[in-house]
Write a structure and sequence with these properties.
With 288 residues, this protein is an all-alpha fold. Helix content is 56%, strand content 3%. Helix 4 runs antiparallel to helix 5 and helix 6 packs across helix 10. The protein is globular and about 65 Å long.
Length: 288
């Protein structure tokens, strides 16, 4: 390397070495090459943002000017910093994955020797938590009450996630047509659902939450565009920011908006087990 590119440029160069757009991540996992590939444009963009923040932190904290000068203590220290900031386990896991990809790309460029230690040896990544941690029912109720007081839409979004297990953007962009007349199910089909990977799926809603879904359906039908919520392009982030502040105010561990989704997983799993499904069948049913 001649000269010294900016840290941002170094991050871009390293991640670009791993681009495998259009390839199947599942196939890469099966043949053991997933660690050295980024198959999604969205993931590439997310990792760029996370790794730039990491590189800037390394520069500010340890005066790092080259990615090759990063050592395991710096990467581990950054994740410890995120934990101290109260970031959710899922967010920290995503950052761990982004840092691993940055290291892989840096090695591909030949900036790190083959015998150099791994930056995050043993640290868990975004896909490694088989037992998600949900908000407890009591924590969820307290959070929803604070969110509802801050903005009724925030409270409704949290209730919707708890009732259906929808992801944040899926919930924010929910359309009335996706909700059954009796609130018994939500079908993410057709355009504009923001379903992960564009995959269509159907979610069964427990009797307890069906009145809420009926109410949300009527709310969507009353809107000209058929969507349940307004200001959808900025709603998800504003909602997450409000939840983060509410957790700090209430002294609740910040588990991200996924904490509500994981609560649905836990409740739905217990319902299915009580209905006679095996552990494997119940796990498969809630894995969406």
């Amino acid at each position: 390397m001649s000269g010294r590119p900016s840290l941002i440029r170094q991050v871009e160069m390293a991640l670009s070495k791993l681009e495998a757009f259009g390839e199947s991540r599942h196939a890469a996992k099966c043949d053991g090459t997933a660690g050295g590939k980024i198959c999604s444009f969205g993931t590439r963009r997310q990792y760029q943002q996370m790794d730039v923040r990491f590189a800037r932190w390394c520069h500010k904290t340890h005066n790092v000017r080259w990615l090759r000068d990063i050592v395991p203590e710096y990467a581990q220290g950054y994740l410890a910093y995120l934990r101290q900031e109260g970031r959710s386990p899922s967010y920290i896991g995503a950052n761990a994955s982004a840092i691993r990809k940055l290291e892989a790309g840096t090695r591909e460029l030949g900036w790190i020797g083959k015998d150099a230690p791994r930056w995050l040896e043993g640290e868990r990544g975004r896909h490694s938590d088989p037992k998600p941690t949900p908000y407890s029912p009591e924590e969820a109720e307290r959070l929803i009450a604070v969110l509802r007081a801050r903005d009724p839409q925030f409270g409704r979004l949290a209730e919707l996630q708890r009732a259906t297990g929808l992801r944040k953007e899926e919930a924010a962009h929910l359309q009335a047509r996706c909700i059954a007349n009796d609130g018994s199910k939500v079908s993410l089909t057709g355009a504009g659902t923001h379903a992960k990977g564009g995959r269509e799926r159907e979610v069964t809603v427990s009797d307890t939450y069906r009145p809420l879904l009926v109410e949300l359906r009527e709310q969507g039908l009353a809107n000209k565009d058929g969507h349940v919520f307004h200001y959808r392009q900025t709603l998800g982030k504003a909602y997450d920011d409000a939840r983060y502040r509410a957790c700090a105010r209430l002294g609740i561990d910040s588990l991200g908006t996924h904490g509500f989704r994981k609560q649905w997983v836990a409740e739905r799993y217990q319902e299915l087990r009580a209905a006679g499904l095996s552990d494997k069948e119940a796990c498969r049913a809630v894995a969406n």
